[in-house]
Design brief:
By secondary structure, the protein is an alpha+beta fold. The chain is built from 17 helices and 14 strands. The strands form four sheets. Strands 9, 10, 11, 12, 13 and 14 form a six-stranded antiparallel β-sheet that branches. A four-stranded parallel β-sheet has the order 2-1-3-4, with helices on both faces. Helix 5 packs parallel to helix 7. The longest helix is centred in the N-terminal third of the chain and has 15 residues. The N and C termini lie far apart (68 Å).
Length: 462
């Protein structure tokens, strides 16, 4: 086991390509590209780890030191520190120093084999033990390359960090298998309380891989299946239906996820109850799910999520992006401040009939301008009977306002099968209307509810 650069992988692949040159020379251009890609993929299959970060994780610099470990230094540490209480970085520094002093001949044992001997002596080194167990499991899954986000990214280099974050979804997507370590679970019955299901970055790590395997806190396989992407029955409950219940994600999406600008509101809802250590990561962890190209700028705070919504608006015309409740963005009050505003999107709802006829939009284009959000809408003359029938409620109508209803108009800003955002407008001055009341309607199985959304006063120019 050692830390290698992508250039080393290219050098390792070249002899394989050279050995197949005779056969490759007979192929057409299209078939040649496919065959070369297959040769590369077959000989560079790698495993990735998805895990909940602890306070004791390895760094890229730690991995550089581990790559230089010698057998005698490891053996000397085992005999000299039989019950070490050091953390991972301290243990690595001690063995690295012992390695520099020694003059070892080449060892017949692999570095992983030597580290496995070390494992029992460093139970408090969460990060180091995790690395050893992960590499061992990767080999069991026929992967001779392994990628670990904590140790394979040099976080002291901002350019490398940004490139890694932008390509994170791709790393998990292209892996042969994703190993998931559930540090809070010893059985399927513990999954509901495992913090792995509450973190922002683990959302894409759940959805992106084509093959995935779950391991418990003590690194035992959760099921006997080689690839958990296949539905499994354990305890009489299918594993993916259980995970669907925990995450609010349909099991069909869990088993066959396609990244892109689809079901915007629902996908934001999947992240609504998740958390990240840094505020910006609540936006950055979603860019792969929506397949967006996005600039990384740590320090921008909640601006990151605002920029994410603007990027989505620029590339698609899904007005369900406006169907949220909670705190508005500080930069545009028709947009949400964070994914938590979409928490209702994960609820199971029945289709609501009647929204479509009121969303006759003349132009689907949405544009963010210097004066605000430009959204073409159709204004409907107010009619009490239609309004009450549409909302199936009269609780927003108060006696002192009844006489003003004749001058009002209303419009639907956004609608989905289960949610509709309705804005009631009063004439502001000639040629413009101002928000009179904003109602968001949710249709749940067996009941309908309405809430006032956070959208404040908005002037509509007609």
């Amino acid at each position: 086991m050692k830390l290698i650069h992508i250039k080393n992988i290219q050098k390792a692949i070249q002899p394989i390509i050279d050995a197949n040159m005779g056969r490759l020379a007979t192929l057409t251009s299209e078939n040649l590209d496919e065959e070369v890609a297959r040769l590369i993929e077959d000989n560079t299959a790698f495993s990735v780890l998805s895990h909940r970060w602890s306070k004791d994780e390895l760094t890229f610099q730690d991995m550089m030191k581990i790559s230089a470990f010698t057998e005698s230094a490891i053996q000397e540490f085992i005999s000299g520190y039989p019950d070490s209480q050091h953390n991972s970085s301290e243990v690595i520094d001690i063995i690295a120093e012992l390695s520099r002093r020694g003059n070892d001949k080449a060892s017949t044992a692999t570095l992983l084999d030597l580290l496995k001997l070390l494992r029992i002596n460093v139970p408090s080194c969460t990060g180091l033990v995790k690395l050893i167990n992960f590499c061992e499991v990767a080999l069991q899954n026929d992967c001779y390359f392994a990628w670990l986000d904590t140790a394979c990214i040099d976080r002291t280099r901002s350019a490398e960090l940004e490139e890694s974050i932008r390509s994170m979804f791709s790393w998990y997507r292209r892996s042969k298998i994703c190993i998931v370590h559930l540090a809070g679970s010893y059985h399927q019955s513990n999954l509901d309380t495992d913090s792995w299901f509450t973190r922002g970055w683990t959302l894409q790590e759940l959805l992106a891989p084509r093959a995935i395997k779950f391991y418990t806190a003590d690194w035992q396989a959760l099921t006997d299946k080689p690839n958990e992407r296949l539905p499994d029955n354990e305890l009489g409950v299918p594993l993916w239906e259980r995970i669907s219940h925990i995450t609010g994600i349909p099991h069909s999406e869990l088993l066959n996820f396609r990244p892109g600008l689809y079901d915007i509101r629902k996908r934001l809802g999947w992240a609504s109850k998740r958390r990240t250590t840094r505020i910006e990561d609540m936006a950055y962890c979603l860019i792969g799910i929506f397949d967006l190209s996005f600039r990384i700028a740590y320090g921008e705070g909640k601006t990151a999520f605002h920029r994410l919504q603007v990027e989505i608006m620029e590339q698609c015309e899904d007005r369900a992006l406006f169907l949220w409740t909670g705190e508005p963005s500080a930069y545009n009050t028709l947009l949400a401040s964070g994914p938590e505003c979409f928490s209702h999107s994960t609820e199971f709802m029945e289709p609501y009939e009647g929204s479509e006829q009121y969303t006759n939009i003349l132009d689907p284009t949405i544009a963010l301008t210097g004066r605000g959000l430009r959204v073409p809408l159709a204004l409907n003359d107010f009619n009490v009977d239609i309004w009450n029938r549409f909302l199936k409620s009269d609780k927003y109508f108060f006696g002192e306002n009844v006489n003003r209803m004749e001058s009002l108009k209303w419009t639907v800003l956004g609608a989905s099968p289960s949610t509709t955002l309705i804005i009631l407008l009063g004439q502001h001055r000639r040629g413009s209307y101002m928000t009179y009341k904003v109602v968001q309607r949710f249709v749940h199985v067996g009941a309908a509810t309405e809430r006032c959304t956070a959208v404040p006063t908005v002037v509509f120019i007609v």
